Amino acid sequence: MAGRPVDHQRRAELLDAVVDYTVEHGFSELSWRPVAAALGVSPTTLVHRFGTKEQMLVAVLGRLRERIFAATSDAIGERPDLPAAARAVWTRTSDPQRGAEFRLFFAVYGNALQAPRQFAGFLDRVVADWMAALCDAQGPGTDPATAARTATLVIATIRGLLLDLLATGDRDRVQDAAESFLATLNATENAPH
């Protein structure tokens, strides 16, 4: 006797609800009973849809990464230059309404670094998505090594600024630093080649 087939649409809806729950309540609160109660389903339903708690966590991390990347990609738009792409990423990630999402992102990042085998999919994509987008934003004529180096600096700077903002709440100081950094990208983009 075969089990019920997985309803992928229902699983996706539940996954989005679990991600929303996790953003609101935090990474450490992710366990079967509280999540099931908040979503109005049984713990057995979650087990059926996700398998183990670790598998649910990996799914949550993947979906969170997809959401962040998709929302920021939408803000960037089609074929922007590097300064516009970096500004769109900073504006989206530093939005106060996104604070809980990015606190979760950094909590997850820290846990993934502690258990790299368990979170290999997350770690494989967390930088690669942005590297590709920011390298593309530099245009096809940019030397690939230069594009990768510049994209790495942009990712590291924005993540560092965001971590500082989340840790201190000092929006004015961090925004001033972000504007200074973004201005260097504009200067580089406008420099004669």
TrEMBL record:
Question: Gene3D superfamilies, per this entry?
Answer: Tetracycline Repressor, domain 2
Q: Does the entry feature the keyword Transcription regulation, yes or no?
A: yes
Q: Which Pfam families match?
A: TetR_N
Do you know which InterPro entries this protein is assigned to? Homeodomain-like_sf, HTH-type_TetR-like_transc_reg, HTH_TetR, Tet_transcr_reg_TetR-rel_C_sf
Q: Which one of the record's GO molecular function terms can you name?
A: DNA-binding transcription factor activity
Residues in domain HTH tetR-type? 8-68
Q: Under what name is this protein listed? A: TetR/AcrR family transcriptional regulator
Residue ranges crossing the lipid bilayer per the database entry: none
Q: Which residues bind DNA?
A: 31-50
Please provide the record's keywords in A-Z order.
DNA-binding, Transcription, Transcription regulation
Q: Is Membrane one of the keywords?
A: no
